[in-house]
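Quick bug: E2 ubiquitin-conjugating enzyme output formatted oddly.
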Amino acid sequence: MRHVIYQRKSAREVARDPSTNTFLTVEHTDKETDNSSRNDERAETNNFKVLRTKSHGSQWINSEFLLERVTQRQVSYFCARVETERLLQEPAPGISATPHEDNLRYFDVIIAGPSQSPFEGGVFNLELFLPEDYPMAPPKVRFLTKIYHPNIDKLGRICLDILKDKWSPALQIRTVLLSIQALLSAPNPDDPLANDVAQHWKENEQAAIATARDWTRSYAQG
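Here's what came back:
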């Protein structure tokens, strides 16, 4: 069992990494930890910081709390736990994200088609996965439900800047899902992933919207 220390109101928490069946024990302390001498890179993430130490490859989380020498996989699981709590406390309208019981880094996502969009009335299933280097790397998200959209291809992959080069550790899963929901409201054929759909959208937008509505009725009815 790994023993780590962090600053927070709660006295103790224990998190399990199901893939390795290892445990992370977290205890409250009022002691300040000096990181000034460490050779590290700092990245703001949500309400905490992730620090990557160049010399040892260890990981720290620090803000209201500090985790010392935690493996990146455990950091990812800890972040998944924090994100899940936030999603439950601050649910986004029309969006649900449920983590798998045996792996907190996998989420089953449901997004309702936004009103006044070609996808209104649809219920779209997605899968979301937090890679081991999350939150330094973006989550992996794809649609499982078929959708006619210029920014979503046949494999369900999504063209969204915050899932690529515009990702920041300060972003949250909730932000990502809201951005995907917004993409359903405002398809962008000028930055396509499905080139044939984008071409259809540009040449005859009304016909493309009609096709999107047909697909929504055919494939996205829960």
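Actually, after a second look the formatting is fine. The helical segments are 72-89, 173-185, 195-203, 205-219. Closing.
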